[in-house]
Write a structure and sequence with these properties.
The complex is a heterodimer of chains A (114) and B (113). Chain A has 114 residues and is mainly beta. Helices cover 0% and strands 53% of the residues of chain A. Chain A is built from no helices and eleven strands. Chain A starts with a strand and ends with a strand. Chain B has 113 residues and is an all-beta fold. Chain B is 0% helix and 50% strand. Chain B is globular, with a radius of gyration of 13 Å. Classes of the chains: A mainly beta (114), B mainly beta (113).
Chain lengths: 114, 113
């Protein structure tokens, strides 16, 4: 039973447009969420995070939105660049102070076409 | 400015052999986490260690798997009597303190023949 779900296995976007990656979770005890980016044969790279006390966090081209009532978060990348092509993982943890156990989604493969 | 180091990057073992995976955390990080990724799956938490202590091993299989993080040297994930189902990518992450962002190594890809 997946607690963190990324329902779109893949997404294709034109360069310069917005990429929106979605993530849903079922456990209402999660209160800290992270997005990681992963290239083939490499480890995940931390992108951005958000605490449940916020509904938005922005870092350059990356913005994460959190809707607690819907148990849904999304990652917006704008403008998208070909170098953004990778697998994006959503992850959640129980409390910001006990990040020992990250629960990951299965990932969404983003392809940005030049 | 070395990140998390893992070795070997690739490991081939025959069924019944032992696999030892090593992880050196980032400088200044004393918290280490191991995750496993099966093909077409997300990463699954295995174990969380601090120097000389196992903090959370709720994701570790009960048999054949063990982990340590000694006072000196890297963290070791040990798999005894490997089976084909152990074939996966094993990732290590580290953080400076509990509750802070985890940074991942490049992974060890284990193939059991």
């Amino acid at each position: 039973d997946q607690q963190v779900k990324q329902n779109s296995p893949s997404l294709s976007v034109q360069e310069g447009r917005i990429s929106i990656l979605n993530c849903d979770y079922t456990n209402s005890m999660f209160d800290y969420f992270l997005w990681y980016k992963k290239y083939p044969a490499e480890g995940p790279t931390f992108l951005i995070s958000i605490s449940s006390i916020k509904d938005k966090n922005e870092d350059g081209r990356f913005t994460v939105f959190l809707n607690k009532s819907a148990k849904h978060l999304s990652l917006h990348i704008v403008p998208s660049q070909p170098g953004d092509s990778a697998v994006y993982f959503c992850a959640a943890s129980g409390t910001e102070g006990s990040q020992g156990n990250l629960i990951f989604g299965k990932g969404t493969k983003l392809s940005v076409k030049p | 400015n070395a990140g998390v180091m893992q070795n070997p990057r690739h490991l081939v073992r025959r069924r019944g052999q032992e696999a030892r995976l090593r992880c050196s955390p980032m400088k200044g990080h004393s918290h280490v986490y191991w995750y496993r990724q099966l093909p077409e799956e997300g990463l699954k938490f295995m174990v969380y260690l601090q120097k000389e202590n196992i903090i959370d091993e709720s994701g570790m299989p009960k048999e054949r798997f063990s982990a340590e993080f000694p006072k000196e040297g890297p963290s070791i994930l040990r798999i005894q009597q490997v089976v084909r189902g152990d074939s996966a990518a094993y990732f290590c992450a580290s953080s400076p303190q509990q509750g802070e962002t985890q940074y991942f190594g490049p992974g060890t890809r284990l193939l059991v023949l």
